[in-house]
Amino acid sequence: MSKALRYNEGKPDHTYLEEEVRDGIAKVMEYGATKYSRDNWKNSINTESHDQFQHDIVASLLRHAFAVASGDLVDDESGQSHMAHVACNAMMWMAYQERRDDV
Predict the structure, then answer these.
(1) Is the predicted pLDDT of residue 34 greater than 90, yes or no?
(2) Is-contact 41 92, C-beta < 8 A?
């Protein structure tokens, strides 16, 4: 019997992502999809509101990070961890940077 071929060299290995972190991000994103709409955060990429939305992402990231730093671990509104919110905001900010037309 021959071995199945897999050509994964040079591709990201997602097994490095911790399950709890990945799940936390997904739960926050699901909460956001219910509150706003699925993928709403993508609507400002490369529009006139791109820079303002990036500012809002950073403000939210810092708000959640400072909550953790002060000992508050769970966001009252969503019921999810503040660190999961930090991770979501970091992901969105990174996506905005990666998808900029002028980079």
Answers:
(1) yes
(2) yes
Beta carbons of 45 and 96 less than 8 angstroms apart: yes
CA distance 35 to 16: 30
Amino acid (one-letter) located at 73: L
| Residues 6+ away with beta carbon under 8 Å from 43 | none
pLDDT tens track for 73-91? 999 999 999 999 999 999 9
Closest of 97, 93, 92 to residue 28, by C-alpha: 92
pTM of the model: 0.86
Element (H, E) at 31: helix 19-35
Question: Can you read off the two tokens belonging to residue 46?
Answer: 């490369």
51 in helix, strand or coil?
helix
- In angstroms, the CA 44 to CA 54 distance is 9
* Averaged pLDDT, 55-77: 97
